[in-house]
Amino acid sequence: MEVTRTFEETRHRYHGRVGLLPTLGYFHEGHLRLMDLLRDRCDTMVVSLFVNPTQFNEEGDFEAYPRDEERDVSLASAHGADVLFAPEVAEVYPGPSITTVEVMGVTDEMEGRHRPGHFVGVATVVAKLFAGLAPDIAMFGRKDAQQLTVLEAMVRDLRFPIEILEAPVVRDPDGLALSSRNVRLSRRDREAALAISRGLFQAAEQVDAGERRGHRLEATVARSMKGLVVDYVKLASQATMKPIESLEEPAVLAVAAHVGPVRLIDNVAFDLADGRPVPDRGILLDVPSELTAMP
């Protein structure tokens, strides 16, 4: 595997079908699962590692985001990456940013409401990666459900000739969704964070039992998270990311909450099979993640 710093030198490493996994780095087993899935679908696998400053709403969150390039290089290489693209900020933003990408509508609620400007930063940097790296396919995880919808809309509207692949949420055996930010949770906070997935799983069980009303599902999750600082609990359409009252279409039950100094997001997706909503709780690991171990 090679480490590159510029778009041009990265493109010179290609052969055949090119797959891209955009990341902020500090890989966990969720990233590694995405790499394994992408490896089987392309000839050249590029993993980008760039902590994008324009998608962070708080300077403190940007500064505190965990970083360890040497560690990430080793993990990406072990999971079949051909190239790790780790640019400097000046390569991605070579001067004052006078061009941005804003996706309308699907960014209005949830993360868009609580993190103004976040999705402009996400869409702009991903558009830069797509334009500069020109992949054939790109992989994203379902944990960032709204981001996935935003990027699918951007690709469709801007006519990027790129196929978007999605992968399930990956969870520790106790249900906590893997996140690079989990390493910042104390033991006590990590235990408290389990209320998020516990509430989502309880709502999924209600759906399995026949519940379809959004306010009932949201209330179940909210009760579980009593004591946490909650930004939102919403049942939303997968297509529009607008709140919906009933599970009559593909949807996500999405959560954002603060646990100690860390803001976490999670969701259970509901696809339709024979007109019936089927919860996608994600993948539970057999053993706890060692890459996001508690301090």
Short précis:
The protein is α/β, with parallel strands linked by helices. The protein has helices spanning 7-11, 29-39, 59-64, 69-78, 89-92, 111-114, 118-133, 145-158, 187-208, 214-224, and strands at residues 2-4, 18-23, 44-49, 83-85, 137-141, 163-167, 170-171, 229-237, 251-259, 262-273, 276-280, 283-284. Strands 1-4-3-2-5-6 form a six-stranded parallel sheet, sandwiched between helices.
Care to describe what's here?
With 295 residues, this protein is an alpha/beta fold. It is built from ten helices and twelve strands. It has helices spanning 7-11, 29-39, 59-64, 69-78, 89-92, 111-114, 118-133, 145-158, 187-208, 214-224; strands at residues 2-4, 18-23, 44-49, 83-85, 137-141, 163-167, 170-171, 229-237, 251-259, 262-273, 276-280, 283-284. It has a six-stranded parallel sheet, sandwiched between helices. Strands 8-9-10-11 form a four-stranded antiparallel sheet, covered by helices on one side. A hairpin with a 2-residue loop joins strand 10 (262-273) and strand 11 (276-280). Helix 7 packs across helix 8 (145-158). The longest helix has 22 residues, at 187-208. It is globular and about 55 Å long. The relative contact order is 0.15.
